[in-house]
Specification:
Strand content: 15-25%
Number of helices: 6
Number of domains: 1
Distance between the termini: 6 Å
CATH architecture: 3-Layer(aba) Sandwich
Helix content: 40-55%
Bound molecules: adenosine-5'-diphosphate
Mean pLDDT: 97
Strand order of the largest sheet: 1-6-5-2-4-3
CATH superfamily: Leucine Aminopeptidase, subunit E, domain 1
Low-confidence stretches: none
Largest sheet: 6 strands, mixed
Structural class: alpha/beta
Number of strands: 6
Shape: globular
């Protein structure tokens, strides 16, 4: 694996709402009107103007992403990606891959240099963390190979257990 690409990946544990990056990614739902988990935390930290902007978008299909301002967050933007509810069918991985790919594409189209992802779909949507981690990392590495303008991709995990899954996978591919 190319060192220039691996050096752009960073693993952290903590709260995504506190990151100073160009964009944090929200694990949103199709209505884009807020919810629980990381979605609720991001809306609380960003303030009510985020919901006002989300209302103007009119929703987002599963597997796609939309960008808004970051308002009271340190992050300049929020990219709202809608992950699949885990069903065990092949479409799950296609849709989760779409979340990462569409979020990264939006970042580059908006000249952003740094982006942070939570473990999309791995909370109430039930996606197995090991499978989701492989999709997140593989899609990001492939993307960085094609679009080198992006400088930093952070994977931020809330739990120690999820962090270890990412650590193990990243160590296995270096
Ligand atoms: P989904 O509905 O896509 O499964 P959730 O918000 O339920 O989304 O969970 C997605 C992931 O985000 C889970 O791994 C959860 O532990 C994590 N998470 C929840 N709150 C935060 C936060 N403030 N910062 C980072 N990750 C978070």
């Amino acid at each position: 694996m190319k060192k220039e690409i691996l050096d752009k990946l960073e693993l952290r544990q903590g709260d995504i709402t506190r990151l100073d990056v160009d964009a944090i990614v929200n694990a949103a739902n199709t209505k884009l009107l807020g919810g629980g988990g990381v979605d609720g935390a991001i809306h609380r930290a960003a303030g009510p103007q985020l919901l006002d902007e989300c209302r103007t978008i009119g929703g987002c299909p599963t597997g796609e992403a939309r960008i808004t301002g970051g308002y009271n967050l340190l992050a300049r933007h929020v990219i709202h990606a809608v992950g699949p509810v885990y069903s065990g069918k092949p479409q799950d991985s296609r849709l989760l891959t779409g979340c990462y790919l569409n979020s990264l594409t939006l970042a580059v189209e908006n000249n952003l240099k740094s982006i942070a992802f939570p473990a999309i779909s791995c909370g109430v949507y039930g996606y197995p963390i090991k499978d989701a981690c492989k999709i997140a990392v593989d899609t990001s590495i492939d993307f960085l190979g094609r679009r080198p303008s992006l400088e930093k991709i952070i994977f931020i995990q809330f739990s120690e257990k999820d962090l270890q899954v990412y650590e193990t996978y990243l160590n296995s591919i270096v």
